[in-house]
User: Which sequence fits this backbone?
């Protein structure tokens, strides 16, 4: 297995044999974008609205005002959203999901 991995990471210019990455089982990274898209698709419409507002930089209190709900309700939506997205902080939300806005 090391030889196959070495051929991928350090190609030998003298060796014309190409190694398909799929030949190395267990070495492929999961398609992170499809995983994140699938998680976002699990959000309820209200959680998704909150998700978009949080990504735009609004505070949770501002989100509650914009969504015309009370702060505790927005907080409940956020907690549920974080569980579905498998994150713990707003920073993690922005880092992992800032590029996924439409589903």
Assistant:
């Amino acid at each position: 297995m090391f030889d196959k991995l070495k051929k991928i990471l350090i190609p030998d210019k003298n060796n014309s044999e190409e190694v398909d990455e799929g030949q190395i089982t267990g070495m492929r990274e999961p398609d992170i974008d499809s995983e994140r898209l699938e998680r976002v698709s699990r959000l309820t419409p209200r959680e998704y609205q909150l998700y978009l507002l949080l990504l735009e930089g609004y505070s949770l209190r501002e989100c509650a005002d914009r969504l015309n709900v009370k702060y505790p309700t927005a907080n409940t939506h956020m907690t549920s959203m974080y569980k579905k997205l498998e994150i713990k902080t707003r920073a993690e939300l922005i880092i992992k999901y800032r590029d996924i806005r439409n589903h």
Q: What stands out?
A: The CA atoms of residues 1 and 59 lie 50 Å apart. DSSP finds six helices and no strands in the chain.
